[in-house]
Amino acid sequence: MNVAKRTFDAVIVGAGGAGLRAALQLSEAGLKTAVLTKVFPTRSHTVAAQGGVAASLGNSTEDNWHWHMYDTVKGSDWLGDQDAIEFMCKKANEVVIELEHYGMPFDRTDNGKIYQRPFGGHSMNYGQAPVMRSCAAADRTGHAMLHALYQRNVRANTQFFVEWMALDLIRDADGDVLGVTAMEMETGEVSIFHAKATIFATGGAGRIFYSSTNAFINTGDGVGMAARAGIPLEDMEFWQFHPTGVAGAGVLITEGVRGEGGILRNASGERFMERYAPNLKDLASRDVVSRSMVTEINEGRGCGPDKDHVLLDITHLSPETIMKRLPGIREISIQFAGVDPIKAPIPVVPTCHYQMGGIPTNYKGQVVVPKDGNPNAPVQGFYAAGECACASVHGANRLGTNSLLDLLVFGKSAGETVVEDFRSGNLSLKPLPADAADASLARLARLDSQSGGESVFDVGLEMRRTMQKHAGVFRFDNLLKEGVQKIAAVAERAKRTEIKDKSKVWNVARMEALELDNLIEVARATMVSAEARKESRGAHVRDDAPDTAENPNGRDDKNWLKHTLWYSEGNRLDYKPVNLKPLSDDVEPIALAKRTY
Amino acid sequence: MIKRTVQFKIYRYDPDKDEKPYMQDISVELEPSDKKLLDALVRLRAKDDSMSFRRSCREGVCGSDAMNINGKNGLACLTDVDSLAQPITLRPLPGLPVIRDLIVDMTQFFKQYHSIKPYLVNNDPPPERERLQSPEEREELNGLYECILCACCSTSCPSFWWNPDKFVGPAGLLAAYRFLADTRDQDTNARLDNLEDPYRLFRCHSIMNCVDVCPKGLNPTRAIGKIKDMMVRRAI
To answer: How large is the average pLDDT for residues A41-66?
Structure first.
């Protein structure tokens, strides 16, 4: 097959919040940049974020970045790197104000400032009381943000390759990254995008689970490509189950509902979060709320004929507040739960939502891997930001509103680093290896010629069911062990998927088969990493690591205060230390403590 | 819901193998959990993986799965499958070139969107903090900024069908008014100049198909009326 080559200073894969923010940095600096995206930019999944973006603007309550940093470290169950967390919380005001200047339609306070609402796990004065830190545009913050970022990129003349799916990462014999191969959906043609710098901003892989708030497109493409190219994946055992997905449908109901005063109730109408988190109650951290909900359901206090969900109640709020602050949620409830939340509570259940782990990076957005004794050696030419990356600011559990902040701060930071590296002459256009496109072409040829294989739909379903059963909100040693075997078997089946559609033109079947390759890498990484981590921390809670005096909440800092690194080849595991030291002297390290809310 | 079988009539065209488009009769058994038209289409794809359509968020915010459903444009993910008369007739959005099956080429649609300079213009040096805007001023943007660029409106508009290269269309004009209505934007005159032409704005004849089909309940016709008002006020 003839493979066209295109050459750029930088190629960005993904045009969600992180990709668009990085693109802006590069376009405005005058770098010749290509942004590849498998969907039109405003269809990226950032669009579905609802409740807000964190920044300690202090527009409605007193606030500062020290408190935000403390909440984030505590929320991460101390697995987050404190240098990256300091960097993110300090930069928050700057990146949010920039967005406002770009035209983002934030809601306003009476004195004209950006409206802020309370959110789970965010507190004032180191855990004392809820703080109003989430900057919101009604309950459509992600939509407003993504469109504002796209619009700013239109102004900056960013060059997009829309409906191009990246296939594989190109590395040379030194391990340096030289770009990607990609396929144009409309023609099925494969091209090499040769670049001095490659930024991955491909989002998460929430579609590995059966029940997910994520879009169809969230298939971990960048994570899968990195894994196949020998880059380890960090902390993939940590997945966030959002407390409030619509029961049955999985569609997200923002935590902002509880920020505006919503209450979770069990079958007897009890506000059960008072028992689990006496201080922050319904606004405790997401992992805590999800586990409390599942405990209520498991102990027979669930709602509905099958006692399989709980209720999110906002009937005590005024219809005006609901219409003004939560209009999108009302639409979603009516559409997907058949309930008008002004009149009746919404049936909800914890639903897979966010990938805390990902491609290991530092706070500058450089991808880092262990090399010659350095656990964090940058990979030449390779950068990542947003949900596909692991900086690591979310550690074992992400706080709501910190994901939109993450993609702004680290999208910008990755962009700045590329511009710096470009200008200082640290980046060069290395020659492409002769076999640069071979792996991608082989994958496509295999799909063209495969016969007697299974359907992508069936294998994908088996993967999602396996992940749901074996790596859910609560994890069990025997189920994890079985899960490792089962996922290995599914991965074997995925190598023989067969598509009937062989058309060159907009072939969805081919796209889904290629996406499944990426999902499978993520599923394997998750299961193997989770089975190996013999403690409970953040979103990873095991039956054989209970709350004891020695290990509060089951967390074992003596043996497990470390990041997991999973390599695809041979399912190999490695570990690296957590950075407990902040970036500057402006703040003391946040000392290890038991997490309570 | 229970298991039930649903009949479809679907526009099919694969330029790689079909000489011309045709309507395919096909049925599929739905699981009790399948509620939306998109659920049914995903079920159909499991049966025939060549059935091509765009989809992503499945909750009506990304704007991918717009199509013509029983003669009316809408989003598959927000349409209750059981509310539709059978056979459910699905066609690509009207008036745009078809790439394959239900997938249309949206180049012209986005070209018009880009033509109105869909970004905030404010040439004052950016202040250290946010530009202030009162809640009332911000309220002016409600009903405008929520557009998801699905193209249901523009592709249901006869004026856009006739002059897709000259008439901006309801989605683009809604976006134009979104910036005209923003107190932070300073480009009012240039924006109005950009639309002062026999086609770009004035081809809207208030047929209001756009309002009828918008899956987000937005009202481009009202926004277009407000732009026309601004033109008139500027002239006197």
So the answer is: 97
**pLDDT tens across B171-203, in order?**
999 999 999 999 999 999 999 999 999 999 999
With beta carbons under 8 A apart, name residues in chain B contacting A44: 62
The rounded distance, in Å, linking the Cα atoms of A151 and A523 is 35
Query: For residue B78, what are the CA distances in angstroms to A494, B81, B86?
Result: 32, 9, 18
Cβ–Cβ gap A48/B50 under 8 Å: no
Name the average pLDDT for chain A.
97
ipTM of the complex as predicted: 0.98
Interface test with B, best of A24, A38, A40 (most B CBs within 10 A): A40
pTM above 0.90, yes or no: yes
Partner residues linked to B180 by β-bridges: none
**Partner-chain contact B145 A147, CB within 8 Å:** yes
Known catalytic membership, residue A140: no
Task: Write the CB contacts of A52 (distance below 8 Å, at least 6 apart in sequence).
Answer: A116, A117, A119, A134, A135, A136, A141, A256, A259, A400, A401, A404
Cβ within 8 Å, pair A151-B120:
yes
Residue A1 has pLDDT above 60, yes or no: no
CA distances from residue A150 to A143, A343, A407 in whole angstroms, order as listed: 11, 37, 14
Pairing mode of beta strands A190-200, A129-135:
unpaired
Mean pLDDT value of segment A311-318: 97
Other beta carbons within 10 Å of A38? 26
| Closest-CA distance of chain A to residue B224, Å | 20
**What one-character DSSP code corresponds to residue A116?**
E
Mean pLDDT (whole number) for A130-138: 97
Catalytic-role residue among A140, A286, A443, A533: A286
- Which of A49, A236, A202 is CA-nearest to residue A515? A202
Other Cβ atoms less than 10 A from the Cβ of A367: the count is 26
Using the predicted structure, report yes or no on whether residue A124 has a pLDDT greater than 80.
yes
* Residue A230 C-alpha from the chain's centroid: 21
Q: Which residue in B has a C-alpha nearest to residue A185's C-alpha?
A: B99
Q: Do residue B179 and residue A103 have CB atoms under 8 angstroms apart?
A: yes
Rounded CA gap, B212 and A230, in Å? Answer: 52
Distance in angstroms (rounded) separating the CA atoms of residues B181 and A246: 35
Q: Which of B11, B48, B51, B61 to mutate to test the interface with A (most CBs of A within 10 A)?
A: B61
Question: A546-566: per-residue pLDDT in tens?
Answer: 999 999 999 999 999 999 999
* Cβ(A365)–Cβ(A378) below 8 Å: no
User: Which residue type sits at B179?
Assistant: F
Residue A372 neighbours by CB under 8 Å, 6+ apart: none
Q: Does B60 sit within 8 Å of A335, measured CB to CB?
A: yes
Q: Is the pLDDT of residue A245 over 60?
A: yes
